[in-house]
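Support request, priority: normal
Reporter: lab tech (M.K.)
Component: structure prediction queue

Hi team, I submitted a job for Diguanylate cyclase/phosphodiesterase with PAS/PAC sensor(S) from Exiguobacterium sibiricum yesterday, and the status page still shows it as pending. I've pasted the exact input below so you can check whether something in the sequence is tripping the parser. The sequence length should be 685 residues. Please let me know if I need to resubmit or if it's stuck on your end.
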Amino acid sequence: MDRSTISSYETVMQGFPLPAFILHVDLTVHSWNEAAESCWGWSAQEVTGQLVPLLDPEDAAFSRQIWYSFLEKRQSMQLPNTTFLHKSGDRSTSTLLVSPLFDEKNEPSGAFFCQLPSSTQQNATKPLFQGLMDLRYAFDQIACVAIFDARGTIQYANTNLTDITGFCPHLLLGQPWTILLDSSEDVLPMIRSQIKKKKAWSGKLSISTQDESKKVFHATLIPVYDVNGVRFQHLFIGTDITETEHLEQELDFLVHHNELTHLLNRRGFLREGQVLFSKASDDLPISLILFDIDRFKVINDSFGTHVGDQLLQALAKRLSEHAKQLLTFHPTSDLFGVVLEVTDRNALFQYARKLQQVLQRPYYINGHSLIISCTFGITVYPSEAKSLEDLYRRSEMALYAGKSIGTGTIQYLTHEMDEQFTRKLQLERSLFTALEDQALHLVYQPIINLKTKHVDGFEALLRWNHTALGSIPPDEFIPLAEEAALITPINNWVVIEACERLALWQKQIAPDLTMAINISPHQFQSDSFVRTLQHVVSQKKIDPRFVTLELTENIAILQTQRTIERMQLIQALGFRLSIDDFGTGYSSLQYLRAFPIDELKIDKVFIDGIDLGENGLLDSIIQLGQNLKLNLVAEGVETTTALSYLEATACQQMQGFIFSEPLSVEEVELRFGSSNPEEPDNKDN
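Reply from support: The job had stalled in the queue. We restarted it manually and it finished. Here are the results:
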C-alpha cells in the first residue's frame, strides 16, 4: 500500500471525530482511529493486522463479493443501512463512505472507510465538529465536497465538485448552495425539515452543471454545530452516480415496457395502474378495456412476422395518439389495453366503438394494405373486480367471451361470465394435480359389429370426477388441459392405460378385441406422443394392429406434409388411424386421399338425420368410405330406425346408447368377461 497515502489519511484520522479505518485488499485492518474504538469496542491494537471484525459471519461470503466488486469498479461509494457487529455482540446500522486506495502501480491496495454520523452521534460530538477542516481534507480526495455557512452560502467547493459540475470555484463561492440544484428538484423542503430536526439528510439529488446538463448525486448534508450547540456550517458530501442512474433507468424501461412498441407491458401496467387504482372507489370507478387483433396469426403466417411486428408498431402509435391522456399498454403479442375513468356503459361503448374505428382503418405496410378487426373486453372496478390483477383477468375473460361470439365484438363482463371465470380458475388449479390424485379415469364404450352384433372392441373415453364439482364434461376440461399444456401428459397416460387394459381384456374377453383411443391435435404434434407409442410397442404386451388412434378432422389444417409424415410413422409402428367425427370439420377429398388412414367415424349428426329422413349426406359418406376401402363406424346410434337403416348399408360398425353407454372397467368385465358379447337391445330412444 502506498505509505504516503496512508500517512496523509492516518494524520487526519487520529483527530477525526467520526469512526474511520483503512483496510488492505485482503480485508485486514491497517489503521483504526479512536472514534472507531469508541464506536465498535475494539482497540486498534486488537484489530490491526486482523480481518475486520465488523462483519456478521453469516454475511461474510456476500460481503466479500461486494468488496471485490467495489475494488473492481475503482470508485468511491456510499453504503447506506450497513449492519455492523459490536465487540459486545450487538448490531448497529449506519451509512459508510468508502473510497478505494491505490499503490504506485495504480492497482487497488485497500480502502478508506468512514461512518457518517447519525443525529445522536452529532449531538454527542458537537465540540469535535470544529475540526471540520481536517474532515474536509480527508474527503477532498474521495468525494465531491462543499461547505456551506448557516444560511447555505457556499464557503468551499473541492476540485472533484468543480470538475464534475464544470463551475469554476469563483462562480460558486458566495452563492447559495441551491445554485447546484436542478430547477426541477423538489427535495428542498425535506432537507430543510431534517436540518431543523438536527438530523443529517441523505438521498439522491439532481445537480445542475455549467453546460446545463444534469448529474445525479447520492448526497449527504450534515449540519455542523459549535460548542454551544449553534449550527454554523453544513458539510455536503456527494458521489456522482449519473451513469449508474442512467443504467437503472434503462433497465427499468426494459423491464416495464414492451420491447417492440415501447408501450407499458403487463408489469408496467400493474405498476402505473396502481396509482389510478389506489384513487378509485365506488364514487370514482375506473374501467379497463382490453382488445386484440382478430386472426393476427393469419397475418403473421401469410405475410411474415416482420410485417406482423410493423403492424403492431403502427397500431400502438395510433392507440397512443388517440388516447394521449390515458394509460395505454401492450402486455403481450397482439393484446393491448386502455384504462379510463369512465364507467357509464353507453359512454364506454361509444369510446370503444370510436377506438375500434380508428384502429381498423387500413394499414399500409411493405406494399400491403392490411385491414384488421379488433375484439374488445371491458370491466369496471370496483363493481366487477376486487384488485388490479383481477380487473385485468376479468377484462381478458370478457374479451375471449366476445371472440366466441364473433370477431369485432365489444363485450362487457356479465354475471354469467363471472361465474364461468371462477369455475374455470378452480378447474385449472385442480387439473394440475388430477393425474396424481387419480381423479382422471377411463370408461369404455363398446364398438359393435353391425353384421354379427358382437362386440369388436371398445373406445376409451376420458372422465374427470372433481372432488368438489363432481363429474366434469370432457368438452369443458379438455380445452383447459390444452390451454395449460397438460393435454400431452394426460393423453400419454390415456394411451398407456388403455393399451394395458386391452392386453388384459384380450385374455379375459376375446383375443382379437380392439381399442380406439382419441388423440388431440396438440398430442399428435408432440414428439413425446411418438415416444409413448414406441414404448407401448417395445413392451410387447399388445399387438398395435388392434389399437386405433382417432384423430379429429381439424388435423387436416395443420402442416399437411408434416401431418402425413407423422401418420406414416405411426402406421409404421403398427397402429391403425381413424378420422373421428367425420363430416363436421375441415376434411376434403384431397386430404382423405393423401392421409394414410384406415377408418372413418361418421359423426352423430348424420346418424340423427336418419329418423328425419335426411339420409343423403350419410349415404354419400358411406359411399366415399367404401370407394376408399375404409372401415366405417357410425357414432351415436340411439334408435332402432337408425340401426335398421345402417344394417342395410356398407357401414361395418357402430356404437351408441342403443347398445350401451360408456362402461366402467368393472361393468365391462362383469358384462362381457364370462359370456359372449351381447346384442343390442331392441329399444327406440
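Confidence is low (pLDDT under 50) at residues 119-134. The domain at 127-246 is CATH 3.30.450.20 (Beta-Lactamase). Let us know if anything else looks off. Ticket resolved.
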